[in-house]
């Protein structure tokens, strides 16, 4: 029975067998959600594997924003299914409960990842399933490969066994006499039965729970596979959300109140309406949209609309915002992230030190400006958008225009960066409102860079107050208080429409959860309810704590008279061996001696985030008064290294993202409006100021952990610590270009 | 009044005001979306194309001022330097999100046209107008050196 050249649809409708394919998914999710793949789309062996006459398509329902996740997920299935790498096709698939993210919720539990016992891991796993209930098809928290590790390998193995059983029936042999190789089942007499020929029969089979391949059998895992998206990204054919093309499409942009949170009072579009190419100007609650025949003409017309705005919903000046954060320290603690020992009873003779650190608001500034394309027709809405949480995007877009979620289809595109920004629902909601005002007409909404920069959900500014004590060269106490605005509370409210409260431990990550043995160790969080819009930014809490907490440890090492690398290493050795190995590795890679020649400074920093310990050493040089960051060494332990070359890219990219913020990243407010507009006033590291970077991966055999975010947190601290080594000047705020001149 | 444009060897009659930037003519009118919008103010290089063989920021060149044939990343017949760079980009697995890479490659092709074996300092100089928020610079540098070597051997 060959699938042959019949059209895809004809073949599928003619095949009753496909309906049964859903059953195979039973091992993939412990209580299977409905398989969202429609039978007419192919033989669906489970929610992650689709076979049609063209071959095998792997559904990779996570946001591809540059981290290579589509290729990594495909690798896990291909490994178990014995697929040839060049034959693999991938699709993001629809938003669906079957694609919930169980790992994300695990991180929400108050158990430090490194300290989890097997029992705790079990509890985390069980609670992880609740993610399904919460519809968490979310890409974030460096959780994709963690979540996928078992599920995707099991999906591949289940499909492989089903195909073997189908072949066994056809040949009248036992499945155990068959093997699989490069997309085919191989009979004992070496006959090849391609998967495409077996798919329909296989969809009827419910195989026993299959065994997963053992590491010595791995062909792809642990090797570097060519990312499937590279050729299209080198020849311009990759289609990002902003490249969506539909027949008869119009082009739109928005102008939203720059005084964030405020509405629009009135507007006058009489001049704009007459401008070239303008087709419609749509009032929104908090601004306007212009629809035109060309995006740039829409930009021009949006500039020409006269609008009066309400005020921002938070204190409008930056210094008032800092005062609001300071005031949070006078309230009760919102969360205690750690409380080891007693920080108030110190051994006699200990040296005590105190310091206050600040971190500014930051924009995500993904390279692809915010955009979405939508068409509203006959009561249904279709949206093309690069989104990290497509279920939330669908539901909130539906609610915004008063239709049911089932009437909304979301096509998740690849993303030109996201860093957390594309988990917010504002962009699909604006696109839905514009489409609803233009029934039957597809409209692509593109934001200007200025609109993107000034309507972000910013990395929260925080103030951290630390008290520490050292004795005999070692840390005996650290007590930290961190004040900020909760992005967890805000983001959950935006995504679900329900106000959230409760302790926000995510804000304490990177400080409370560090794998250090310090006998008296307490970290508490204090929240301000100012409504400055804040959101998840690559590495979340660890993005500010990685700087503040680690730099304070550097100060403690200095006060203790201990080499800063040895100081951290001693604390890690007693608590978490893999973290100690990472610190030792970066010491060896960088040839750390604790001494540097004149004109050269070195700093070390360490942060474990999302289960992956990362240590970095940065070297800076004084070039006639200008600072050059000459070298960076990174050691990390993601438990299992799926693809070393991709990990190297994520680690160095994460470092560079962190350095950009550390050197020059700052969002400030004036009159409730963001002061920064575009890259000239919110720049990033470029070719000429990027250091030489070396990455080494340590695999101490722990649980698999993410790599997209953990490279970012130590970067600012390693740089600030290196600058202290070079100049003797300890800077406790960012960005560093307020205090140093860089090349 | 229409404006005539030659893009990737094909002639187009464009019916848009002459002040519309080339970027938005390519993307919205002709439908060549390989060239990207990043900033609109000459600060990121995502929109880089070649006009008469020279790298230009297409967000800064008005339709009425385009004074030669335009080549974009989407061309199906890349000249040797461009083809060598595209191959090197894949070999080195340069792209992360990939959004900046059209501009990076077009800028690098301009560099190799004038400087067949660029030094690191020359790469810094030529490429610093091209922003990459994913931080792929080390691999961009390696891929440029590699493409230069391969072109020299060819
Ligand atoms: S879009 Fe032209 S330089 Fe950024
Ligand atoms: S690869 Fe993402 S901006 Fe360069």
From TrEMBL, chain A:
Protein name: Isoquinoline 1-oxidoreductase beta subunit
Keywords: Membrane, Transmembrane, Transmembrane helix
SMART domains, per database record: Ald_Xan_dh_C (SM01008)
PANTHER family the UniProt entry points to: ALDEHYDE DEHYDROGENASE
Transmembrane segments: 12-29
Pfam families for this protein: MoCoBD_1, MoCoBD_2
SUPFAM superfamilies registered for this protein in UniProt: Molybdenum cofactor-binding domain (SSF56003)
Alphabetical list of InterPro entries matching this protein: Ald_Oxase/Xan_DH_a/b (IPR000674), AldOxase/xan_DH_MoCoBD1 (IPR008274), AldOxase/xan_DH_MoCoBD2 (IPR046867), AldOxase/xan_DH_Mopterin-bd_sf (IPR037165), N-heterocyclic_Hydroxylase (IPR052516), OxRdtase_Mopterin-bd_su_IorB (IPR012368), TAT_signal (IPR006311)
GO molecular function terms listed in the Swiss-Prot or TrEMBL record: oxidoreductase activity
Residues annotated as domain Aldehyde oxidase/xanthine dehydrogenase a/b hammerhead: 235-313
Leader peptide range in chain numbering: none
UniProtKB/TrEMBL annotation, chain B:
Domain of life: Bacteria
Transmembrane intervals: none
Protein name as catalogued: Isoquinoline 1-oxidoreductase alpha subunit
Annotated Gene3D superfamilies: 3.10.20.30, [2Fe-2S]-binding domain
Residue ranges annotated for the 2Fe-2S ferredoxin-type domain, each copy included: 1-76
Pfam families attached to this UniProt entry: Fer2, Fer2_2
CDD domains: fer2 (cd00207)
Keyword presence, Iron-sulfur: yes
Organism: Donghicola tyrosinivorans
Keywords of this entry: 2Fe-2S, Iron, Iron-sulfur, Metal-binding, Oxidoreductase
GO molecular function terms attached to this record: 2 iron, 2 sulfur cluster binding; metal ion binding; oxidoreductase activity
């Amino acid at each position: 029975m060959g699938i042959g050249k019949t059209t895809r649809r004809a073949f599928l409708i003619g095949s009753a067998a496909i309906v049964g394919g859903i059953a195979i998914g039973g091992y993939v999710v412990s209580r299977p959600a409905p398989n969202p793949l429609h039978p007419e789309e192919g033989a669906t062996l489970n929610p992650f594997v689709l076979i049609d006459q063209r071959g095998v398509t792997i559904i990779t329902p996570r946001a591809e924003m540059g981290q290579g996740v589509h290729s990594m997920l495909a690798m896990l299935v291909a490994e178990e299914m014995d697929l040839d790498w060049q034959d693999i096709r991938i699709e993001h698939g629809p938003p669906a409960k079957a694609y919930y993210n169980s790992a994300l919720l695990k991180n929400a539990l108050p158990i430090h990842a490194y300290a989890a016992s097997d029992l705790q891991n079990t509890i985390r796993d069980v609670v992880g399933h609740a993610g399904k209930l919460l519809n968490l098809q979310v890409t974030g928290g460096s959780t994709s490969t963690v979540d996928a590790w078992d599920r995707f390998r099991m999906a591949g193995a289940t499909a492989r066994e089903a195909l073997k059983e189908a072949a066994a029936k056809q040949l009248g042999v036992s499945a155990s006499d068959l093997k699989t190789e490069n997309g085919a089942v191989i009979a004992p007499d070496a006959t090849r039965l391609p998967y495409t020929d077996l798919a329909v029969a296989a969809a009827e089979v419910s195989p026993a729970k299959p065994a997963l391949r053992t590491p010595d059998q791995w062909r792809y895992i642990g090797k570097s596979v060519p990312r499937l998206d590279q050729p299209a990204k080198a020849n311009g054919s990759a289609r990002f959300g902003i490249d969506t093309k539909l027949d008869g499409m119009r082009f739109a942009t928005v102008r939203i109140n720059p005084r964030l949170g405020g509405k629009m009072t009135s507007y006058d579009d009489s001049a704009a309406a007459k401008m070239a190419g303008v087709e419609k100007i749509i009032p929104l609650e908090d601004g306007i949209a212009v629809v035109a025949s060309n995006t740039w003409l829409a930009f021009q017309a949006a500039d020409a609309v006269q609008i009066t705005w309400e005020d921002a919903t938070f204190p409008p000046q930056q210094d008032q915002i800092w005062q609001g954060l300071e005031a949070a320290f006078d309230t009760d603690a919102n969360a205690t992230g750690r409380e080891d020992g007693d920080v108030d009873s110190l051994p006699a003779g200990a040296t005590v030190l105190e310091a206050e650190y600040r971190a500014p608001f930051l924009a995500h500034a993904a390279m692809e400006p915010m955009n979405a394309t939508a068409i509203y027709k006959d009561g249904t809405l279709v949206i093309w958008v690069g989104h990290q949480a497509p279920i939330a995007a669908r539901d909130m877009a539906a609610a915004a225009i008063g239709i049911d979620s089932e009437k909304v289809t979301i096509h998740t595109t690849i993303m030109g960066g996201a860093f957390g920004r594309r988990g917010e629902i504002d962009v699909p909601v604006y696109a839905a409102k514009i489409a609803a005002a233009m029934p039957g007409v597809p409209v692509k909404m593109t934001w200007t860079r200025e609109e993107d920069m000034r309507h972000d959900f910013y990395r929260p500014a925080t103030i951290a107050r630390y008290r520490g004590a050292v004795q005999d060269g070692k840390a005996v106490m650290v007590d930290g208080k961190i004040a900020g605005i909760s992005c967890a509370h805000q983001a959950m409210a935006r995504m679900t429409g329900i106000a959230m409260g409760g302790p926000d431990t995510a804000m304490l990550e990177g400080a409370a959860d560090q794998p250090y043995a310090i006998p008296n160790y307490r970290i508490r969080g204090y929240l301000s309810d100012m409504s400055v819009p804040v959101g998840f930014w690559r590495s979340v809490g660890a993005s500010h704590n990685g700087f503040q907490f680690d730099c304070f440890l550097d100060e403690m090492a200095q006060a203790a008279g201990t080499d800063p690398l040895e100081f951290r290493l001693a604390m890690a050795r007693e608590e978490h061996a893999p973290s100690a190995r990472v610190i030792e590795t970066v010491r060896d890679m960088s040839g750390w001696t604790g001494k540097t020649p004149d004109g050269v400074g070195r700093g070390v920093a360490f942060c474990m985030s999302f289960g992956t310990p990362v240590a970095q050493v940065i070297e800076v040089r004084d070039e006639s008064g200008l600072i050059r960051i000459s070298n960076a060494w990174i050691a990390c332990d993601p438990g299992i290294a799926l693809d070393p070359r991709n990990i190297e890219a994520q680690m160095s990219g994460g470092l560079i993202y962190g350095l950009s913020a550390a050197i020059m990243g700052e969002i400030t407010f004036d009159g409730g409006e963001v002061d920064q507009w575009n890259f000239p006033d919110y720049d990033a590291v470029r070719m000429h100021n990027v250091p030489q970077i070396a990455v080494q991966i340590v695999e101490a055999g722990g649980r698999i952990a993410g790599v997209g975010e953990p490279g970012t947190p130590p970067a600012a601290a390693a740089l600030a610590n290196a600058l202290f080594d070079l100049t003797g000047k300890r800077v406790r705020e960012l960005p560093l270009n307020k205090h140093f001149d860089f090349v | 009044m229409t404006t005539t444009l030659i893009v990737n060897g094909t002639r187009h009659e464009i019916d848009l005001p002459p002040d519309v930037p080339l970027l938005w003519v390519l993307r919205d009118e002709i439908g060549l979306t390989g060239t990207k919008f990043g900033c609109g103010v000459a600060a990121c290089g995502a929109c880089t194309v070649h006009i008469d063989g020279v790298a230009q920021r297409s967000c800064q060149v008005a339709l009425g001022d385009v004074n030669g044939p335009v080549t974009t990343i989407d061309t199906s017949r890349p000249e040797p330097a461009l083809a060598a760079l595209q191959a090197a980009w894949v070999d080195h697995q340069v792209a992360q999100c990939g959004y900046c890479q059209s501009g990076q490659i077009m800028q690098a092709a301009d560099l190799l046209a004038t400087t067949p074996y660029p030094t690191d300092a020359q790469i810094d100089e030529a490429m610093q107008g091209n922003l990459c928020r994913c931080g792929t610079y080390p691999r961009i540098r390696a891929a440029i050196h590699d493409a230069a070597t391969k072109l020299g051997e060819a």
